[in-house]
C-alpha cells in the first residue's frame, strides 16, 4: 500500500543523518555530565562564532515550551508580564507554562502575527501613564518569534525599532527561533544571527524543527545577564544528565553551514508548493516566505486532498472555505514535493 | 477652607459606626484566634441564613484581590485557567495575583462588562473541539462580578444560563461580589443571595466597599467542595490572627438588614446624581443601575468639575470627551449628593 | 460564673484603646486608599525616626505569615532558599507559605531557637564548596526572629556577627519581629531599632501581638533594594484598600513611646510569673527574658492548673513532664497576673 | 596516552547500542508527535506487561528531576508536602525543583537512606494530632527511591509496610526508580515491577542511568488517578515533540529482557569491585548490594587511586578518612573492572 504524502508539520522524522552518525561515533566515549563535556564546549564555540558574539552565554535546552518558560521566568521580575502577539506560541499553545512560572502574557492583536514597535511603545507607555498602574501587570519583556507562528518575518528595521523601544523603556527583548533556520534561509530575510545577538537580550536557535532530534540553543549575548543559569535550568527540571546529546546536535548543525543548508532546502520546497497553489488557483491565506504554506480550500478540495496528503487543519475561514497548512522541513523529500504539487494542481 | 466634594470611589471612609461600636464593646474580651471565636460563629450563621443555605462553608478574608486569588487558586486544577471579561478585575487590576497562583485568565470581549452564556459555551466547546487542546489552557472556571466593574447587573435568567453552561461542562462558577450590596439594593435586580447560593460554586459578599473597614465573606454552598480551607488560607498568607475582627464586621452587617440599608442609601444617591446628569445633558457612558455613574464630559466641563469635586478619570472617549466616574457608597452624605447635583447642573 | 485566667497567647484581645479611639475620631474623614493617606505618611515618619533611618522604605502589611512570605519571596532570587532555625516560624507554622512562593527553607538545628554566625557561615561555605552545588538550593537569605519562637534574644554582638557573615557572602538578612516590643523592653536586650536598621536588609516590627488589631511594619533601610513594592504587595493579595487602618495603628503605637510601654508592661508581668514558678519549684524549660514563660509541669500540676488557667501546651518532655507556656502581652491585667502567681504557688 | 579508568557515575556513555540502532532504522519514518506514535504505543504495552498491570497509564519523561517535579506536583494538593529521607534526591539535589512547584519536602533522618513505615506513620499521626496542624504542611505523599541514593534496597515486606501506612492515612506513595535496573538485578532484591505496580500510586523506571540516552518511564497503576496528564506535562515544559525518541528507548529496553541484562551486568561488576575492596582491606562505608560501592580510603590511598581512576568524592568521614564512590553501569567494560580491582588491591 502506498502511504500518504505527509506535510503535516516540521517534526515528522528523527534527526539529520550527520547527528545520528556523530552519536554513533561518540557513544562509547566517557564524558562528564550536564553539559560540561568537550563536544558541548565545541558547539558553544561554533554558535558564538555564527552569532559573531564571542562572549555570549550559550545554553542548550530540550524543547520550545521549556525554553520559553525558563527564559521568560528568569528574565522577568516576579511582578512583570511578557508582551506577545495574541497568536504567539506562549499565548496559545503552551498549556499555561508561562503562568505556571507566575507571569501574565500581555496579549496584543496583530494582523499577521507580528508585533510592531509602535504598539509595543503604546502598551508600555499606557501602563506607566495609568494612574492605577501599580495595580496592573508591569510589561517587563517583549516576546516575538522569527519567523512568527504564521510564518511571517520581521525585517531588520522592524526588529531594530522594537529593540529601540525595549531599550528605551528597560524592557527585555526575547526572540523565539523555533523555526529560525527557515527564516535565515529566505531571500527576503535580512536579519542575521549576528543581528539577533546585537538586538536581543536573549534568543533561541531552534533545533527540534530544524534538523535536530530535539534541542534548542539559547543565546544570551551579555553573559552577566543571568548568572547561575545551571541552577535555574535544574530547578525547572530541564538539565539533561547526558548534556553531550545536545552538544552533539548543535555541533553538527553548526558545522559546515549545515543549519543554513537545512533551511534553504525547506524554503526551496515551500516555494515550489506555493507556485503550485498559485497555478491551481488556491488562494494563499497570507503571504509569507518561510516553510509554512497557508492556503484556502473548499470542502471538496479538502476532501480530495485528504485522500493523498496529510496536512494541518488551521482554522475555518467561513462556511465554505478552510485554512489549511503544509509544512516543509529539512527532511522533506524532493519527490514528495513534486507529488504534492501534482495533487494540488489536479484539484 | 472648604474641602472638595469627594465621589472618587466607594472606600473613602472607615467603617459603618455599628462596626466600630461593636469593636469598642468587645475589645477587652479574650477570644481564641483565627476565626474560632463565637462572634465569627454568629456572623457565619447570619450569612448562612441570609443565603438560605444552612450548610454553606463561610470564610472571611481581608480584601478582594486576596479573595479572588485564593478562590481561583483553590477551585482550579493546576492546569486550568479562568474565563473572565477582559474588563474584569482579575484581568486588569490585580497586578498578576492570579498568575502568581499559576493560572491564566482567559479574557473574553464584552460590550458592557458582562459575559453571556453563549460565549462561555463557545469558549469551552472550542477548547474541547480543538485538535491541539491538550496544548492549551483548559477552562476550569468562570469568573463574573455582580455588579460588574462597569456597574452593570446580571439578571437571574442570565445567571441561570451561565450556571447551566458551567454545570454542563463541569466548569466552576465564581461570583465576585465586591460591591454586592449595591446590586442587591437595585430595584432592577432580581438575583438574591439565595439565588447566588443555588447557582454558584462559590461567591463572595463584599465588605470593604459596603460598610466594613475591610473584609469579604466567601460563601461555598457545598461544604465538601474545599476541605482544608484554613490551611489553604494560611498558605496564602491570609489567615487573620484576630479573626474576631472579621466576625464583628459581618455580624454587624448582617444584623437587622444593615447590609440592605447600606446598599439602598447608596443607590438612592446614585440615582439622584444620574438624574442631575440627565437634566444637565451629560450623556451617561452606559446605563447601569448601581452605585457607579459613568458619564461623558468635555474638557471644559471636566476642568470646572475638578475645582469642586473629586471624581475618577475612567478613560478618554475621543479627543474631545472623557469618561469620568462618580461613586456613591454607604458613607455618602445626602448634603454632598445635593451639592454635587448643583455643580453638575451648573456646568 | 468566674471565667478562667487566660494566658494562652499574646493576641487574645482587640487593640490598644488609643488605636480604637483614633479609628473613631478619623472614621468619617475621606482619605485616599492603599496607604497614600496622610496618617500612613505620619506613621512612616515616626517609624523612620524610631529606627534612626530617615531614608528607610516602610510598608505596612496585615500579618506575620503574609509578611514573611512577601519579604522572603521578594528578597530572594527564584533559585535561592532561606536559612532558618528548624524551630523558626517559617519552618514549621506557616502551612507552606514560603514554598508557595517557590523557595526552600534550609532548616538548621539550634539549641535555643537561635542561629549562630558560625553555623550560618559553614552552611553557606559548604554550599559553595560542594562540587554539586549547582544542583542544590543556594542560600540567599538568613531568617531569624527577635525574640525567637522560644522567647530567646540575640545580643547585639551575635547579630553583628550574623550580619557580618551575610554581607561577606552576599546573603540577605531578614529579622521577624512579630514580638519585637517584648524584646526591646527587656533589660537584657541591647539591640535597638536603629541597630536592626543598620544590620539587616529588612525587618518587621510586629503589631498584631504588640497592641495593634492587626498589622506589621516592614522596614527596608535601603529604599532602592525593592522597587515596585506596591505591585509586589498587590500581587500577593496583601494591599489593604483602606491603608489608613494600618497607618492609624502604627501612628499610635509610635506616638509617645507607646510601643515601649506596651513591651515593658508585658515583661514586668512575665518576670512576676517567672518568680512565682521559681518559688513554686516549677523548672523553667529554658531561660528567656521575654513575654513567654515555658515551664515543666507534672500531669497532676497540669490538671490542677487547667481548672483555673488557660495556657498553651508546648510539647511532651517525657512520660512524666510536659512543657507548657504562659504568654503575657500589652493587654494582660495586673490582677490576673497576681491570681496566676497564686495558682502556681499553690500547685 | 592511556586514559584513566572511569567509575565516576552511571551516565558516562551514550546509549545501549540497540537503542541507537533502532533510532537509525526508524529515523526517516514519518510519525505523529508528542508520544502518539506506534513505537511509543508498543513501549507502553511492553511496560504494562512487565509490570503485570495492563490498565496502567505509562508516560515517558526526559530526566529524573523533571519526573520527580511533575509527579510530586500533580499528585499533591497545593497545600500538601512530601515526606522524604533527608538524603533523598528531592531533598538535596534538585535545586529547589519541588519547591518551585510550591511544595515543601518534609525531611526525615535515616540511618541508611531508607525511610521506615514506623517513622512515616508517626510523622503523619503527629501532624494530625498537633493542635496547630492547620498551620503546618500536611503530609500528602511519601517519596522513596529504589535503590536509595546510598544504594540500599527496600525489601518487599518493608515496602508493603510503607504502602499500608500510606493507604491507611490516604497519603500517596511514589517510588523514584532512577536506578531501578540495578535494584531489580540484585539477588538480594525481592521487589518486582509487579509489586511496585501493586503497592505504589506511581513510580518510575529509570532510563538515563540504565541504558537509555535519556528518559524515565512513569507508571501510574490506576489510570484514573491523573487525568489530563498530557496538559500537565506540557505545562511543565516536559512534552517532547518527537515523543518517538522516548518510545524507541523503552521499547528497546523492554524487548528481550534487555533491562534485566543491563542490571545484571552492572551488579556482577559491582560485586567484583566489592570483593577487591574487601581483599584490599578497604572498609565499605555501608553495605549495599547495588551498583554503587562506597568505601573509606586514607589520603594516601585516595591520591594513589586518583592517578589511575576517576571516582566520586562522597564526603569526608574524619580528618584521616574519606568516603568515595565507584559506580558501575550497563556500559562498564569487564577489562576496566579488572583493572580497577588490580589498582584497589595494590593500594
UniProtKB/TrEMBL annotation, chains A, B, C, D:
Keywords: Lyase, Pyridoxal phosphate. It comes from Streptococcus lingualis. It comes from the Bacteria. Belongs to the threonine aldolase family. Pfam families: Beta_elim_lyase (PF01212). InterPro entries: ArAA_b-elim_lyase/Thr_aldolase (IPR001597), PyrdxlP-dep_Trfase (IPR015424), PyrdxlP-dep_Trfase_major (IPR015421), PyrdxlP-dep_Trfase_small (IPR015422). The keyword Lyase applies. Signal peptide: none annotated. GO terms for molecular function: lyase activity. Residues 14-294 form the Aromatic amino acid beta-eliminating lyase/threonine aldolase domain. The lineage of its organism: Bacteria, Bacillati, Bacillota, Bacilli, Lactobacillales. This is Beta-eliminating lyase-related protein. Its cofactor is pyridoxal 5'-phosphate.
Amino acid at each position: 500500500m502506498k502511504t500518504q504524502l505527509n506535510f503535516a508539520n516540521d517534526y515528522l522524522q528523527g534527526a539529520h543523518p550527520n547527528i545520528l552518525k556523530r552519536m554513533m561515533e561518540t557513544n562509547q566515549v566517557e564524558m562528564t555530565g550536564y553539559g560540561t563535556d568537550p563536544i558541548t564546549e565545541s558547539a558553544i564555540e561554533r554558535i558564538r562564532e555564527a552569532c559573531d558574539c564571542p562572549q555570549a552565554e550559550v545554553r542548550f535546552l530540550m524543547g520550545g515550551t521549556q525554553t520559553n518558560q525558563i527564559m521568560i521566568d528568569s528574565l522577568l521580575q516576579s511582578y512583570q508580564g511578557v508582551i506577545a502577539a495574541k497568536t504567539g506560541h506562549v499565548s496559545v499553545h503552551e498549556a499555561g507554562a508561562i503562568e505556571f512560572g507566575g507571569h501574565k502574557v500581555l496579549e496584543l492583536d496583530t494582523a499577521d502575527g507580528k508585533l510592531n514597535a509602535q504598539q509595543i511603545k503604546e502598551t508600555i507607555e499606557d501602563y506607566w501613564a495609568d494612574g492605577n498602574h501599580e495595580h496592573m501587570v508591569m510589561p517587563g519583556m517583549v516576546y516575538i518569534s522569527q519567523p512568527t507562528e504564521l510564518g511571517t518575518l520581521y525585517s531588520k528595521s522592524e526588529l531594530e525599532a522594537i529593540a529601540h523601544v525595549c531599550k528605551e523603556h528597560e524592557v527585555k527583548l526575547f526572540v523565539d527561533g523555533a523555526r529560525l533556520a527557515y527564516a535565515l534561509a529566505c531571500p527576503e530575510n535580512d536579519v542575521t544571527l549576528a543581528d539577533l545577538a546585537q538586538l536581543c537580550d536573549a534568543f533561541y536557535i531552534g533545533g527540534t524543527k530544524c534538523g535536530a532530534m530535539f534541542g534548542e540553543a539559547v543565546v544570551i549575548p551579555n553573559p552577566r545577564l543571568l548568572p547561575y543559569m545551571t541552577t535555574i535550568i535544574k530547578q525547572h527540571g530541564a538539565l539533561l544528565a547526558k548534556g553531550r546529546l545536545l552538544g552533539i546536535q548543535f555541533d553538527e548543525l553548526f558545522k559546515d553551514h549545515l543549519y543554513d543548508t537545512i533551511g534553504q532546502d525547506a524554503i526551496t520546497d515551500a516555494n515550489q508548493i506555493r507556485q503550485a497553489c498559485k497555478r491551481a488557483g488556491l488562494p494563499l491565506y497570507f503571504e509569507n516566505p518561510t516553510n509554512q504554506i497557508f492556503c484556502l480550500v473548499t470542502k471538496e478540495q479538502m476532501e480530495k486532498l485528504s485522500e493523498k496528503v496529510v496536512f494541518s487543519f488551521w482554522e475555518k475561514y467561513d462556511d465554505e472555505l478552510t485554512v489549511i497548512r503544509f509544512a516543509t522541513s529539512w527532511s522533506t523529500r524532493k519527490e514528495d514535493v513534486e507529488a504534492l504539487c501534482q495533487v494540488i494542481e489536479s484539484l
